Amino acid sequence: MNIADSPQQAILVRPRIYIGDHISIGPGKVDLLRRIGETRSIAAAARSLEIPYKRAWLLLDALNQALGRPVVETSSGGKGGGGATLTPLGRQLVICYGALEERLNAESTAELEALRALVATP
């Protein structure tokens, strides 16, 4: 997906999608969902993204409210410890957003290179 050789040179399209007046899906929420899927923990996902735990909960709550269904299921701690997993809706959201992001970047190579040329340093 990257059109650059190194992360420092990377230039990517990271879309924010608005569906109606109440649903906003963007890179922050999707990155949080991806990390929850990887770590199986909201706290660990928040730490890895360097955002406060409360912010992570607010992002998840905003998605849950907007979509009318949960994107993450949680289990309480205890002897085996708690955890979090993506619901089928949460997994589908990550997949669809990822496909859109990949396609936008693949289809906009010329425009992204033109933007890179505008900010290139001598």
What do you see in this structure?
The protein has 122 residues and is mainly alpha-helical. It has one domain (16-119): Orthogonal Bundle (Arc Repressor Mutant, subunit A). It contains five helices and four strands. The strands form two sheets. A two-stranded antiparallel ribbon has the order 1-2. Strands 3-4 form a two-stranded antiparallel sheet. The longest helix is centred in the last third of the chain and has 20 residues, at 88-107. The protein is elongated and about 55 Å long. One of its GO terms (molecular function) is DNA-binding transcription factor activity.
In short:
This is LysR family transcriptional regulator. This protein is mainly alpha-helical and 122 residues long.
Number of strands: 4
CATH superfamily: Winged helix-like DNA-binding domain superfamily/Winged helix DNA-binding domain
- Unreliable spans are 1-5
Question: Mind describing the biggest β-sheet?
Answer: 2 strands, antiparallel
Tell the overall outline: elongated
- Write down the CATH topology: Arc Repressor Mutant, subunit A
Number of helices: 5
For the record, what CATH class applies? Mainly Alpha
Organism: Rugamonas aquatica
InterPro entries: LysR_HTH_N, Molybdate_resp_trans_reg, WH-like_DNA-bd_sf, WH_DNA-bd_sf
Pfam families: HTH_1
Protein name: LysR family transcriptional regulator
